[in-house]
Amino acid sequence: MKVLLHGDSPFEWQVALSFYRRSASKGYFYACSSLSSTTGIIYILFKIRIKPDLGGRGIMLSNIIDMLDYIKKQLPWLEIQEYDINNEGWDNAVLIINKEWIFRFPRSEDTAQHLLNEKLLLDFLQTEISYLSIKLPKYRLIFKDNRPICCYYSLINGVPLSPSILYELDDQTQNQIAFQISSFLTMLHKVDLEEIHSIELKDNQGYTYWKEHWENIKKLVYPYLTEQECQKITNMFESFLNQISINPLPKTIIHGDLTHKHILFDINKKQISGIIDFGDIQLGDPAYDLSGLYWDYGEQFFNKILNYYSYPFKDLNYPIDKRVTSFYGKRLIFHDLLYAIEKKSVKDFNNGLKLLKQSLV
To answer: Any idea where the Aminoglycoside phosphotransferase domain is (predicted)?
Structure first.
């Protein structure tokens, strides 16, 4: 089989796939490519790793070539020797080049424009966070037609701090990690928006948002639940909406997606090495950022974090720990279920439904 694809770079890419071999067990395929230049034809063997397609979010080969072509055109100093593709994100396709550079390509126009806000916030936080030994991405933006087409930054070493890794650590190390996480959140939630010139963040998490969110759950998820399970969710939403109508929630800058996947851990130093993926930064209730940690790590470690967390809005009539444990703690599973329905992923929906039912016992 021979497929000819055309790029649009100064070097006039002509990529001929002279053979195609995919390993089902490892998810690799190999492509032999030729690059036309003034000095002749250079043959390159690419080893490409593709993450399994999740709900229709796969990247076609032509898109991969377009991304690589654009990187090569914009950054001629970067010699691409190998790359990996992470297709798990909702908003961005991620290329890891030479195990050194992360490139994030937005999937939508809104996400592309949001890169500007991410960079403004991250640039501001760099000096604020230096004392914690936690690295944040240092964005560089690439523009096309006066809009950001992608961002790239130097890879931050570390592995996601999964619950299994955390639970194997001794109590003292867990306390140190809890201190790092809580210190980062305290710093983030205290940022004065007016100090960051030109940043524009959405404020979507009001009463109307959560009411509409509940209506979607009733329409799309309730049919798969028992009457008793539906009533538990109804009680949860009614209680929360009643509370926030009486006690308005504080609004701060929030990470918006702080789960174990975005907390990098240095196994050798036994400490957090970085925090990544700021694609969901927005204005919202600071308790929202704690809910992913509660869901991933459980109540015991959540309390460790809360013990170190210091913020003026910590003690309200509707306390932050109560907001997390009684409501926000389940928001991840609801969002995942609705997203699985949107992408028509039966597998993801069934897995999410199982987790939801377990949490309602």
So the answer is: 87-304
CATH of domain 159-359: 3.90.1200.10
Burial 222-251 (b: 16+ CB within 10 A, else e): eeebeeebbeebeebbeebeebbeeeebbb
Q: How far apart are CA 91 and CA 75, in angstroms?
A: 23
What number of CA atoms fall less than 13 Å from residue 330's CA on the CB side?
24
Q: Are 291 and 184 in contact (CB under 8 A)?
A: no
| Distance (Å, whole) CA 134 – CA 60 | 35
Q: What is the pTM of this model?
A: 0.81
Q: Which two tokens stand for residue 209?
A: 């948002």
Identify whether the C-beta of residue 307 lies closer than 8 Å to the C-beta of residue 168.
no
CA dihedral 24, 26, 29, 35 (to 10 degrees): 170
Rounded to the nearest 10 degrees, the angle between the axes of helix 287-297 and helix 299-308 is: 140
Q: What is the DSSP string of 67-110?
A: HHHHHHHH-TT-----EEEE---SSEEEEEETTTEEEEEESSHH
In the chain, where are the structural domains located?
Answer: 159-359
What ranges make up the beta strands (E) of the chain? 3-6, 13-17, 22-23, 28-37, 40-49, 83-86, 92-97, 101-106, 140-144, 147-154, 159-160, 252-254, 263-266, 271-275, 282-284
pLDDT in tens, 147-160: 888 999 999 999 99
Query: Which pair of tokens denotes residue 176?
Result: 């140190």
- Calculate Rg over the CA atoms of the chain: 23
The CA distance from 5 to 3, in Å, is: 7
Least confident of 37-51, 82-96, 102-116, 292-306: 37-51
The 10 Å Cβ neighbour count of residue 114 is 22
Distance CA 178, CA 317 (A): 25
Q: What is the pLDDT of residues 43-69, one digit of tens each?
A: 444 444 443 333 334 343 347 888 888
